[in-house]
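Lab manual, section 2.4: Encoding a predicted structure.

Procedure: take the sequence of the chain (156 residues), apply the prediction step described in section 2.3, and record the output as structure tokens. A sample record is shown.
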Amino acid sequence: MRIFAVLLGLWTALLVGLSVRFASRRDSGPTVDTATSVVPADHRTPILLTATARATVLSEMRTMLGSVQGVLEGASRSDTVAIKAAALASGVVMAADPALENELPKEFLQLGMTVHRAFDSMAANAAAGPNDAVKRLATIAATCVECHALYRIQVK
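Recorded output:
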């Protein structure tokens, strides 16, 4: 019973801390130049797709984000089987429909395939352990950040 009370107290403290942290972010308001009330321009390259094609690409990205979470969860438990399964879910096999290749910029496709191949490599080397997986994940995340900084996907 004492362990339950301690865990409940820790959980409550965590929730209160997160509430305070996010409330302070919310109170700070959007990033807007208040002198001119102008939102900074988005200088990323737009990729114009049909609504269906956009949904397909975004679904693929959500799958990759799920793999990131799965790898981290597996790494936190030193579970190399879970790391491998999570990484395989975002390997080259799950890359978007090849018909979309004609609609996407070459550089965007190259970044995406770099990530898919990196997930395959992580899966193949999952036995190297959680530290290796986290290092590989850092490289994958850097590629994701680069791509999201360069491109935005819009409906035609």
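Check your result against the sample. Residues 44 and 150 are 5 Å apart (CA to CA).
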